[in-house]
Specification:
Length: 133
């Protein structure tokens, strides 16, 4: 039996369609799925010249410092102030106290002070005082 060109053409079209149909459902190359990112959660922050950023805390923040520079911290924090409000100072810390624990300070009564440590040592009783020679 001799087949004509019409039958060969139709069979070829059917064969090509079947091959396309098989490969259409196969994932030869993995599909790229990019995650959706909500860009409203990100903002540009201006950096200072040294790479730091300025932060303003607008409410009370609970802070628990366990170590500084790899050394554990117990009791008082070691603080070395060089500047307050943009002004350098040497010696005593400049203070202008108006109230302590919600109570106004009167110059006739002095400032209520509770000293717990001096030079990192806890105080139990009197405050150690050195006389100047």
């Amino acid at each position: 039996m001799k087949t004509d060109n019409y039958t060969k053409t139709i069979l070829t079209i059917i064969a090509v369609a079947l091959v396309i149909n098989v490969f259409q459902n196969m994932n030869i190359v993995n599909e790229a799925n990019a995650g959706k990112t909500d860009f409203n959660k990100f903002a540009s922050v201006p950096l200072n010249n040294d790479g730091s950023i300025n932060v303003k805390v607008v409410s009370d923040m609970d802070v628990n410092i366990r170590s500084i520079g790899g050394s554990s911290v117990y009791g008082a924090l070691p603080i070395n102030l060089k500047e307050i409000g943009g002004s350098s100072f040497y010696g005593a810390i400049p203070m202008n106290l108006k109230e302590v624990s919600g109570s106004s300070i009167s110059s006739s009564y002095g400032i209520p002070v509770n000293i717990e440590a001096v030079d990192g040592s806890s105080i139990y009783g009197a405050v150690p005082v050195k006389d100047k020679p």
